[in-house]
């Protein structure tokens, strides 16, 4: 199951929630304090940092035995000896990454989205595949009992989604959405730290998630950005819940009113604490330093797993009901004919 931690804006505490949730889940597995039974407890949890422009989960997790590999993407290269200057490549490119100027084909690699459309429409096979470096993919082992994978975008690179897709390919569990989540719910818990906002990087990360955990601040700005993220998730069809970070009290505020209106569950309130801010500034984990935070994230973890399990049961029931209804309808049609 894939749980993506997201937010409508930066600085809400998204990474703080993601890393502490991952540590809590790994500890819960070892203590067998579960509502599910993993087939392989040693590798049940993994943390994926998809905020490739500013990855920082590794600053808290401090992974060891880090393996780094360079990630590239396809860009076109033109063999002018074969090119007839037909301009078909220019016509198909929506991003003007390839164009003809003064009877020469010009390529702008930073604008290329690697769709390969230009090479597909070239009638003479003049366009070949070349590559450019996007950034790096890194994987390490945490002393807390899980692996961390993250991407680092190359300085000056404009597009992060291609690298995010490469990072997501390392997720060892598949999403149960559209299939049967019950098949993989006991195999792996992948906690994904998404980029902030609702633009292409965030949407690329949120696709195929089984559940989205939205971290929000109880401010007018926080509410505005939260609402944008909720609308994006509705279009993606991803179930969601809200964590209110730096909550001043247990009293209801503007986020609660919005959540009630949209029928979204408030999964947890992480209380405001100056001590917590100091701990995070040192790159330490809240669950290791503050007992109240340990309990807070344990409750959050159990709520998430319970929610996903319930969603899986409801999804399975709906599919069974639909299949039965369709079968009955088909039989009825056959009978009438």
What can you tell me about this protein's structure?
The structure is a single chain. The protein is of the alpha/beta class and 337 residues long. 39% of the residues lie in helices and 24% in strands. The chain has eleven helices and eleven strands. The strands form two sheets. Strands 3-6-7-2-8-1-9-10-11 form a nine-stranded mixed sheet, sandwiched between helices. Helix 8 links the parallel strand 10 and strand 11. The radius of gyration is 23 Å and the shape is elongated.
CATH architecture of the largest domain: 3-Layer(aba) Sandwich
How much is the radius of gyration in Å? 23 Å
| Main sheet properties | 9 strands, mixed
Q: Look at the structure and name the CATH superfamily of the largest domain.
A: P-loop containing nucleotide triphosphate hydrolases
| Low-pLDDT ranges | 178-183, 332-337
**How many domains make up the 3D coordinates?**
2
Mind telling me the CATH class of the largest domain? Alpha Beta
Q: Could you provide a short overview of the structure?
A:
This protein is of the alpha/beta class and 337 residues long. Helix content is 39%, strand content 24%. The protein folds into 2 domains: 2-63 and 142-321, Rossmann fold (3-Layer(aba) Sandwich), CATH 3.40.50.300; 72-133, Alpha-Beta Plaits (2-Layer Sandwich).
Question: Which key phrases capture this entry?
Answer:
single chain; 337 residues; Rossmann fold; Alpha-Beta Plaits
């Amino acid at each position: 199951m894939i749980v993506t931690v997201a937010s409508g804006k930066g600085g809400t505490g998204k990474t703080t929630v993601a890393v502490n949730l991952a540590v809590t889940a790994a500890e819960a597995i070892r203590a067998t304090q579960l509502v599910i039974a993993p087939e392989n407890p040693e590798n049940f949890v993994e943390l994926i940092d998809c905020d490739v422009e500013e990855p920082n989960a590794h600053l808290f997790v401090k992974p060891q035995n880090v393996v780094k590999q360079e990630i590239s993407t396809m860009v076109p290269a033109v063999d002018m000896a074969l090119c007839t200057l037909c301009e078909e490549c220019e016509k198909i490119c929506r991003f003007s990454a390839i164009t003809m100027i003064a009877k020469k084909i010009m390529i702008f690699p930073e604008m290329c989205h690697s769709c390969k459309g230009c090479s597909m429409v070239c009638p003479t096979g003049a366009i070949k595949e070349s590559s450019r470096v996007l950034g790096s993919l890194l994987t390490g082992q945490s002393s807390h009992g899980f692996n961390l994978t993250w991407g680092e975008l190359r300085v000056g690179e404009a597009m992060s989604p291609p690298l995010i897709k490469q990072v997501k390919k390392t997720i060892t569990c598949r999403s149960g959405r559209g299939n049967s989540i019950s098949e993989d719910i006991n195999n792996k818990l992948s906690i994904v730290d998404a980029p902030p906002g609702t633009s292409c990087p965030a949407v690329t990360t949120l696709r195929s998630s089984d559940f989205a955990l939205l971290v929000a601040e109880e401010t007018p700005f926080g509410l505005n950005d939260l609402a944008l993220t909720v609308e994006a998730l509705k279009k993606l069809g991803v179930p969601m819940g809200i964590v209110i970070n730096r909550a001043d009290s247990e009293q209801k505020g503007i986020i609660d009113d919005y959540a009630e209106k949209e029928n979204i569950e408030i999964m947890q309130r992480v209380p405001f604490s100056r001590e917590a801010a100091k701990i995070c500034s040192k790159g330490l984990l809240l669950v290791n330093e503050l007992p109240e935070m340990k309990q807070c994230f344990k409750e959050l973890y159990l709520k998430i797993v319970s929610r996903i399990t319930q969603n899986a049961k409801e999804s399975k029931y709906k599919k069974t009901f639909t299949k039965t209804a369709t079968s009955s309808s088909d039989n009825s049609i056959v009978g009438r004919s």
